[in-house]
Amino acid sequence: MNWYDKLNTYFPVEEMKSKEQINALLADKGDIYHKDEGDTHILMYAEFDSFVFIDFLWVSEKTRGKGIGHQLIEKMKAKNKPMILEVEPVVADDPDTKKRLRFYKREGFTHAEPIIYYHQDFITNKETQLEVLYWAKSELSEKTIFEYMKKIYEEVHAYNVEKIYGNLPKPVYKVLRFDENRKL
Predict the structure, then answer these.
(1) Which of 82, 83, 162, 183 is the most exposed place for a label (fewest CB within 10 A)?
(2) In the 3-class helix/strand/coil scheme, how is 77-140 assigned residue by residue?
(3) Can you give the CATH number for the domain in which 170 is found?
(4) Number of domain units in the chain
């Protein structure tokens, strides 16, 4: 199974980018968008000057629980930049959602509670609310994370969308909001 099929069979369809979009990111934005692939893992991430965005982290089922995910996160932490990622909210009938959240919490990630993010799936044309998590070595405001999320949306999620999917991505203000009163 190739790297894209591994991601596509593990992640919910609503969260996936098309292979064409990921390949375009790798080819056109190779200075920031990267693929770290091995026999037991795939890590897709964007490294900006001031932060890292983890787009996809997949560890093979046979090696889950053996520290590979932890090693990959430690590799990203060694860059000494804040990290941001998105996860689907915990769903009772999907144990993977709870496992993912528990893993990231163990790795020191924190919910950016005031950030409300509606991920646009350009394949199915659906919106899914995702939770934003972040890790930082030192104090970082959630307003800063919010600004980073805008950049992620514009530079990664919305990249080449009209050309690849035939749809216009929504403006950033329609998919991202900051609500200081929101508590999870």
Answers:
(1) 183
(2) HCCCCCEEEEECCCECCEHHHHHHHHHHHHCCCEECCCEEEEEEECCCCEEEEEEEEEECCCCC
(3) 3.40.630.30
(4) 1
